[in-house]
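Support request, please re-run this one:
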Amino acid sequence: MRLTFDLIRHDPEVFRGLTGLLPSVFESIAAEVRPRFEAADRARLDRPGRRRAIGAGRRYELDATDQAFLALVWLRHTLKHAALGHLFGVSEWTAMRAVGRMLPLLEATGRCRAPVPPPARCRRKGLDTLLQDFPRLARFVRPASPGAAPPRIFPFAERGRG
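Re-run finished. Output below.
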């Protein structure tokens, strides 16, 4: 099961434990971030030298609201990107890009001033630690099975970028 804001918004206690915010406060932040996200995405698509037409290429796996949710969970708990990916049903690379994309947008709202933890100095949590801290979260997310293979990561050459 993929963790989304729409899925977890009805359990304010779990949502607040994950983000430090009430769902209503997050909704107002997401409403501020969404236009900034669309403007930044449009600027990315309008860049000079782009090979594809606007509308071509892959779509984001998570919408702006869920990317902001993912970034706030990362800020609050310093989870490993693989754990974030599992929570939100995406690869660890997609989770990492979403965090990098959303942090400046969240900070630009002036309402999220959480310090970004330096990667080398903090110990990142795994999914098992998060589920121990928030047992009610297990209703929304299936823990990774011990024998399950991680998502396959294709080298750049196999993706056509080599």
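Residues 5-45+61-142 form one domain. The radius of gyration is 17 Å.
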